[in-house]
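Fold it.
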Amino acid sequence: MAAEQESQKQAKSAAKRVAMKVSAVRSVSAEDSAADKQSMGQVRKTFVFLGFVAVAYALYLVLSGQVDEFVTSLAGVDLAWIVAGVVCFLFYYVFGVLAYALSIIADPDNPVGIRDLMSVEASGVFFMRLTPNSAGAPPAQIYRLTRAGLSVGEASALNFTRTVLYEAGEGVFAAIMLVFCGSYFYETFGDVTLVGLFLFGFKVVQVGAMLFLCLFPKPVVAIGNWALRFANRRGWLKDEKFEKYFEMVNTQVVKFSAAFKRSARNVREMLLTMLVTLLQLGCMYALPWFVLRSFGEPADFLVCLASGSMLELLINAVPLPGGAGGAEVGFAMLFRGMYGVHTTAGFVIWRAVEYLLPVLIAAPCMGMRSKGGESLNRRWSRFRKRALSLVTGRGAPGGRRAASRGGVTVRPAGPRRAGTVVVSGGAKRAAAERDVAARIAAGKAAAVAKRAAAEPAAREAEGVRREASINPAKLRRKQAARAKGATGAKGGERPAPKGTAGTRPAPGQPPAAGKAGEDA
């Protein structure tokens, strides 16, 4: 007994020393990993390209004689406005994560967590600025979504839906700005306003093509298959690439369409996601206003928003990392009248806050991963119930649920005697835990008893099978004898004991003693 107690103590102490951790491996396809590595390769080339751009810009300042103006303007900058602009752009990142969360919050079984979404949005910010035409952003984001637990099809569909809403948000924002500030652009730039209208039209066509793909997948698949076969027959497309693109057209397009239609059925969530996207874009378009205010110049906030929107359309139309070239020309054309002599310094500060700083902030955030647990849908449902209970007073301190936190509750009236003191909280929880433990123990005991009761029958059946395999004739004789005995018992007949066979007591006499008397 002492040895058993000692062994149990050793086992408990060993269990305390050993920390067990169970983790689920989240699979990532080799193609997604290769695409992410390819995006990183494009980033390295982009850094080299941007180095040449920075050198060229410095040479331009020296050769144009604007170095003195540049230094003087930087010396008079109010850093408080620059810090405010940085905080404003940080909300661009926050709203981006929120938009992704709204896209998946309706699914109670989605495994993607907040940290996963922060990593996804950070990779979008990073690769959107460092790859040509933002080509590296979708593969990097899909890779991180698959790493979080989604399948490749689900991750691609989620990323595509988010991209459609973002692009549509750019078009909607530009349309709103043209409605309110169209007269300003025409009076200030004249016929050059047609360039902005052309960029806006290009964005409308781009968003329309995406929506057509989502709403009418069958015509898109048919057109895509015809184009791929046409290019393959003429040798323009190799067989390997043909098979890759053919599979993508016939599988991904349908998944994209299904995901978008599923999201579109939740009209309220889609409209809320669009609103969050517009706020996100507004945080980026407002940066020139903060930079202009840092120089102490007056600024019209709405005009700065409209000009920032047009500038971003121009940057997206340039197929170079970060819209290099288009950003410089567009900023000088749209903001020279506002900045005046501070245009060069203003561009450098704006570019640093809008382009370089997000890259530095996003780089360490791309490795963030959630630890698992409940989905965002269940967390939000629990938070909403708690908030509603607090608002309605059901869960407020002093209400009925306050006792669950522990302590002593005095009820002056009620079915109990006046002034009854009811101890609740920790005692109730302890009693509930004991009740649960008792139920578990009772269930285990019942299972053990059932198993013990089933063991004799199992052993007997095993003996019967063994005997049937060894001597089937003997088994048949036993079964026949058992059946005959059972038939006799049913009919009320019993074999008489030895020594009493044929003896029957006379009428009126007691039965004979012994076994026969007991049987009678």
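Residues 14-27, 396-425, 497-503, 512-520 have pLDDT under 50 and may be disordered.
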